[in-house]
Amino acid sequence: MGDPLTELGADIVACRRCPRLAAWREEVAFVKRAAFADQEYWGRPVPGFGDPAARLVVVGLAPAAHGANRTGRMFTGDRSGDWLFRALYRAGFANQPTSTDRDDGLELRDAWVTASVRCAPPQNRPTAEERGACASWLDAELALLPNTKVLLALGQLAYTAVWSHLARTGRTLPTPRPRFGHAARVELADRVVLTSFHPSQQNTFTGKLTEDMLDGVLVVAREAVDAA
């Protein structure tokens, strides 16, 4: 038998559950952005990646059309990823602060990066049905990351996906669900859930999210991981 995470990744890459997303990701990969016209786009669902022994799991929303949908690795090749990987590096979860392609030497240490939706959605807005169709992939992935202690949700939709995953997998959760906000923290019996504003250009260009704010959440993640 092969590695279960590798096999799951292959199953994710082959997924065609959502016709709208499949059509869009492939159209983007064919038309391309002018700056990347000489590159071959990935144009398929994107699996998570990182350290299989990770205690920190970072959950984003979905691949960017000209980021992970181009490079084939979550958060790689776009400005959101630039912010995330710099912060992971400063917190000791990555060996380098940049990520441009799948073969750039990036290694995550004690961290895994994934998303609630695996295909690039039009306008970065997957429908509720599409988010639901992808939910089982997150369940399967987290089941293969047994050392997980901290779940960091980037953005409200990722937080919703994380919370739904915890409910589906039988955790005892507080009610009502704690509201999403930057640097929120929820302590569960076997997990710590942290939240951050997503490092999207909409948030970083406007100053809604600063590097200090993102670093602060990663410092808390590091402390929670080390205390586990």
Description:
This protein has 228 residues and is of the alpha/beta class. It has a single domain (4-227), classed as Uracil-DNA glycosylase-like domain (Uracil-DNA Glycosylase, subunit E), CATH 3.40.470.10. The protein contains eight helices and six strands, in the order H-H-E-E-H-H-E-H-E-H-E-E-H-H. The longest helix has 17 residues, at 211-227. The protein is globular, with a radius of gyration of 16 Å. The model has no long low-confidence stretch (mean pLDDT 96).
| Content of β-strand | 5-15%
Q: Taking Cα atoms only, what radius of gyration do you get, to the nearest Å?
A: 16 Å
Count of the domains: 1
CATH architecture group name: 3-Layer(aba) Sandwich
Unreliable residue runs: none
* Integer average pLDDT: 96
**How would the global form be characterised?**
globular
| CATH homologous superfamily assignment | Uracil-DNA glycosylase-like domain
Relevant terms:
228 residues, alpha/beta, Uracil-DNA Glycosylase, subunit E
Lay out the secondary structure.
Blueprint: H1 4-13, H2 19-31, E1 49-50, E2 56-60, H3 68-71, H4 79-90, E3 111-115, H5 128-143, E4 150-154, H6 156-168, E5 185-187, E6 192-196, H7 201-204, H8 211-227
Parallel strand pairs: 2-3, 2-4, 4-6
Antiparallel strand pairs: 1-3, 5-6
Helix pairs in contact: 4-8, 5-6
